[in-house]
Write a structure and sequence with these properties.
alpha+beta, 5-stranded antiparallel β-sheet, 5-stranded mixed barrel, 18 helices, 32% helix, globular
C-alpha cells in the first residue's frame, strides 16, 4: 500500500493544476481514510526523505522547484510550438515552448529547458519556457516522399515528428525517382537560416502503394521484421518434436465439445472454450490456452527474440508475429480437429455467475469447431443451418453464463467504454476502398468475459502463492483529472461527484448511451484515465474493478502471457520455492516497461497505417460529404470525427461562417461573438472534405453550410425577435 500511496502523491503533485496545500489537506484531496492515514504518512515521509517532495513556506507540500533546469523530451506541433515532458515525474507537468524558443529541437529529442513564465490560462496553471540545449537527437533517420522541386531534390517527411523539408543530393546513387518513398539519414539539422540536409540510404518504393506504406511504417516505428535462421530452426525443431500422443502429464479432454471464436482473418487461435454442468447443476467453464511455454524454453534464442518483440503487431492487411508462423499459426494454434497442448483454467459458477471454485491443469484438447464472431452471432440469433447441435447448445450456454458474469462484474464496478472502432475494406492491391464500424456483436463480450475471468483466476493464484509476476495494472485516475471531467460533463447537463467512484462513472456512461454526446463523453472518460500497463506492482485494474489481474490468455502474441504461463507451470509442477527464486531474479520492472513500450509501439503503428490508408482513399473524394461528430475544440478550430470511418479532421474557425469565433475553455465550447452560435463537444455536424495531406496525416473539413449565414450581432438578433413580437 505504501508504494501505491507514493505513486498517487507524485501523480497529484506533477499534475499541471496542482496548487500547493498542507499535508492534512493533501490527504483529503486524495481521499485517504482515517485508517489508511498512517500508511499514507509513511509513504509521504519516504518521498520527503528522498527529495521527491518538499515542505515549503507555510508547510505547503510542493514538488522540487521548477526554477532550475528541466531535462525532458520535446514534442513538436505543426504550428511551430511544442511541449517538453520532464523525465522526472516530480515536476508540474509539461512545459509549453513557444515557436521562437524551440532551438530547432524535433519531436523525441532529449532537451534541457528552463522556465521563463508561469501563469494561468482558462483557469489552468501553465508553465512557459525555452529550450536551452538539445542534449540528444531522438533519431537521425526519417521516412518521406522524394520531390523534384525547382530549387533541387527535397524530401517531405512523413508523420508529425518533423515537418520541414530535407535537402538531398545525388539521388541517382540509389536510383531514386520523383515521388518515391525513401529513408533519409540526416547530415545536418535545420537552423533558422537553412533546411536540414540528408542522404538517401534506402528506396522503399513508389509512395501510395500498399507494400511501400507497410515498409514505411515498419521503418518509422522500428518494428521487427524477419526472424533469423536460429529462431526459425528452433521453431522447426519444436514442431518436428511435437508428439500429441505423449500426454502422461496432461489431462486428456479431447472428447469434450470445445470451440474457438476469432475474427475471420485470424490464424493464431490461442484460446478455446468448453462449458458443462457438474452433478450439482453448477456451471464448469474451461478456458483452454495454447501452451506456448512447452515449445519455447526460457532464455532460449526464440524466447529472447520474443521478449525483444514483446508482442505481435497487427497492421491493416499484415501481421508481424511475436513467434515464427511454424508455432504461431501451426502447432501452438488451437486449430479444429487437431490435438493441441494447453493450459486450462476450470472455473465453477453458480447460476448467478458467482465463482465457487477454480482449478488449473496442463491439458490436451481437440477443438470441435472454429467459429468467427459473425458465425457465432448468427447461431445465437437463430440462424443455425449447418451448425452442429452440440455447438449450438454450447454457444447458448456460453451466452447464459457470460450475461451472468457480466452482470456480476458490472455490479462490482466494471467500466465499459463505448468507443468507435473502424474496420477497413481493402481491395486485392491493399488499397482501402471503404471502411465501416467494426463488428461488436455479443460473442465479443462472451469471449472478453471468459478471458477476464481466466486472467483474474491466474493472478489470484499467483498472489496467493506469493510468486513475483508481471501484472496488467490500471491505476485509479487522479483527483484533478476527475475534477476536470466533472467540469466538462457539467456542460452537457450531467453531474459527476468531485471524487467519483466507479459507480458514478458507470451511471454517467449509462446516462449518455445512445445520445449525441455519447462519443465525446466516452472519449473524455478515456482520456481522464491512465493507460493500462505491465508491471509487478500490485495495484489492481481500475476499469475492470479487479484486485488481482494479469494477462494469461494470449501467449502466442504477448510475451507477458508467456511469462505468466511459466509462473503457472511452476505451480503445476510443485516447484514453488524454485519459482520464487527464478522470478525474483528477473527484472520484472524493466521487462514490464519494455513490453508496455512494444505494445504501445504496435498500437501506434496500426493507428498510423490506418490513418494513411483512409487518407489515401479520401484524397480521391475531395468535395464529398462526411457525417461527423465534434470531438475536440481548440482556439484554432474544431475537430470532428467521421461516424463511419473513425478518422478525425480539422475545421478551421474561419470556415465555420462569417463571425468572430472564440474558444471558451471554461464552458468547453466555441462561441460566435456576433451571432451567439455555440459549438459543443458531441454535436453532430455535416461536413465536406476540403483537402487531404497524407504525408502530414491531415484531413481538413468544412461544414456543408456555414453555421452562421449572415454576420448579425447578438443585439440585432434580439431586436429582430422583439419586432416579430410586435
Amino acid at each position: 500500500m505504501t508504494e501505491t500511496f507514493k505513486k498517487r502523491i507524485i501523480e497529484l503533485l506533477k499534475h499541471p493544476e496542482y496548487e500547493p496545500v498542507k499535508l492534512a489537506q493533501l490527504s483529503k484531496v486524495l481521499g485517504i481514510s482515517s485508517q489508511d492515514y498512517q500508511a499514507f504518512k509513511s509513504a509521504f515521509d519516504q518521498l520527503h526523505k528522498a527529495g521527491h517532495v518538499i515542505i515549503g513556506a507555510g508547510n505547503l507540500v510542493v514538488s522540487p522547484s521548477l526554477a532550475g533546469q528541466i531535462i525532458g523530451t520535446f514534442k513538436a506541433n505543426p504550428k511551430g510550438f511544442g511541449f517538453v515532458t520532464p523525465l522526472e515525474p516530480d515536476v508540474h507537468g509539461d512545459l509549453f515552448i513557444p515557436p521562437d524558443a524551440t532551438a530547432n529541437a524535433m519531436t523525441g529529442d532529449t532537451v534541457a529547458a528552463r522556465i521563463t513564465r508561469k501563469g494561468k490560462r482558462a483557469g489552468q496553471m501553465r508553465y512557459t519556457g525555452e529550450i536551452v540545449e538539445v542534449l540528444e537527437r531522438a533519431q537521425n533517420r526519417f521516412i518521406g516522399t522524394l520531390l523534384k522541386e525547382p530549387e533541387g531534390w527535397l524530401v517531405q517527411p512523413d508523420g508529425t515528428s518533423f515537418f520541414e523539408m530535407i535537402c538531398v543530393d545525388d539521388v541517382t546513387a540509389k536510383n531514386a525517382k520523383h515521388k518515391d518513398k525513401v529513408v533519409v539519414e540526416m547530415l545536418s539539422y535545420p537552423t533558422e537560416k537553412y533546411l536540414a540536409r540528408g542522404v538517401i540510404i534506402e528506396v522503399l518504393g513508389k509512395a501510395g502503394r500498399y507494400d511501400t506504406e507497410i515498409k514505411s511504417i515498419i521503418r518509422q516505428f522500428h518494428l521487427p521484421t524477419e526472424f533469423d535462421a536460429a529462431h526459425l530452426e528452433q521453431a522447426r525443431a519444436a514442431a518436428a518434436d511435437f508428439d500429441p500422443q505423449h500426454t502422461e502429464t496432461r489431462e486428456d479432454i479431447t472428447d469434450k465439445v470445445i470451440i474457438t471464436i476469432d475474427p475471420p482473418d485470424a490464424k493464431d487461435f490461442d484460446d478455446a472454450i468448453s462449458l458443462e454442468k457438474d452433478s450439482r447443476g453448477n456451471w464448469v467453464l474451461g478456458v483452454h490456452i495454447a501452451d506456448v511455454s512447452f515449445f519455447v524454453p526460457q532464455d532460449s534464442p526464440l524466447d529472447l527474440e520474443a521478449k525483444n518483440r514483446g508482442n505481435s503487431a497487427y497492421l491493416p492487411g499484415c501481421t508481424i508475429p511475436m513467434l515464427p508462423e511454424t508455432l504461431s499459426n501451426g502447432i501452438c494454434s488451437l486449430q479444429p480437429q487437431q490435438k493441441r497442448f494447453t493450459k486450462t483454467v476450470f472455473i465453477t459458477y453458480d447460476r448467478q455467475g458467482n465463482i465457487l471454485s477454480r482449478r488449473f491443469a496442463n491439458t490436451i484438447i481437440c477443438s470441435t469447431q472454429r467459429l468467427t464472431y459473425q458465425q457465432a452471432d448468427r447461431i445465437l440469433n437463430g440462424h443455425t443451418k449447418g451448425a452442429k447441435p452440440e455447438v449450438i447448445k454450447l454457444l447458448k450456454d456460453m451466452e447464459t453464463l457470460s450475461r451472468a458474469i457480466e452482470s456480476r462484474r458490472y455490479k462490482n464496478g466494471m467500466i465499459h467504454l463505448d468507443i468507435l472502432e473502424t474496420e477497413l475494406v481493402m481491395d486485392k492491391s491493399g488499397r482501402v476502398v471503404d471502411a465501416h464500424p467494426a463488428d461488436n456483436s455479443y460473442p465479443h463480450t462472451i469471449i472478453e468475459m471468459f478471458m477476464v475471468e481466466a486472467n483474474e483466476a491466474v493472478a489470484s493464484l499467483l498472489d496467493k502463492l506469493n510468486i513475483p509476476f508481471i501484472r496488467r495494472i490500471h491505476p485509479e485516475p487522479d483527483v484533478l483529472s476527475m475534477k476536470n471531467l466533472a467540469e466538462l460533463v457539467k456542460g452537457f447537463g450531467y453531474k459527476l461527484p468531485r471524487n467519483p467512484d466507479r459507480t458514478a462513472i458507470q451511471d454517467l456512461l449509462a446516462a449518455v448511451k445512445d445520445t449525441e454526446c455519447s462519443l465525446a463523453i466516452n472519449l473524455a472518460v478515456l482520456r481522464s484515465f491512465e493507460k493500462a500497463r505491465y508491471a509487478p506492482l500490485h495495484i489492481g485494474h481500475f476499469a475492470l474493478a479487479s484486485t488481482h489481474y494479469c494477462h494469461f490468455t494470449s501467449p502466442i502474441r504477448r510475451y507477458a502471457d508467456l511469462l505468466v504461463h511459466r509462473n503457472l507451470e511452476c505451480y503445476l509442477q510443485n516447484r514453488l520455492d524454485q519459482a520464487k527464486g527464478i522470478f525474483a531474479d528477473l527484472d520484472l520492472v524493466e521487462i514490464g516497461k519494455h513490453i508496455t513500450f512494444t505494445e504501445e509501439r504496435a498500437d501506434d503503428a496500426e493507428d498510423e497505417l490506418t490513418t494513411v490508408l483512409i487518407l489515401q482513399m479520401l484524397s480521391d473524394k475531395i468535395g464529398e460529404e462526411l457525417d461527423c461528430v465534434v470531438t475536440g475544440l481548440t482556439n484554432f478550430g474544431v475537430f470532428a470525427q467521421s461516424r463511419k470511418l473513425g478518422i478525425e479532421g480539422l475545421i478551421r474557425l474561419v470556415d465555420l461562417g462569417p463571425d468572430e469565433w472564440k474558444f471558451n475553455a471554461v464552458a468547453h465550447c466555441i462561441i460566435g461573438q456576433r451571432s451567439g452560435c455555440t459549438i459543443r463537444l458531441g454535436q453532430p455536424i455535416e461536413t465536406i472534405i476540403v483537402s487531404v495531406n497524407v504525408s502530414a496525416r491531415q484531413l481538413n473539413l468544412a461544414p456543408i453550410k456555414p453555421l452562421v449565414s449572415t454576420p448579425r450581432t447578438i443585439k440585432s438578433a434580439h431586436r429582430a425577435r422583439q419586432s416579430r413580437k410586435k
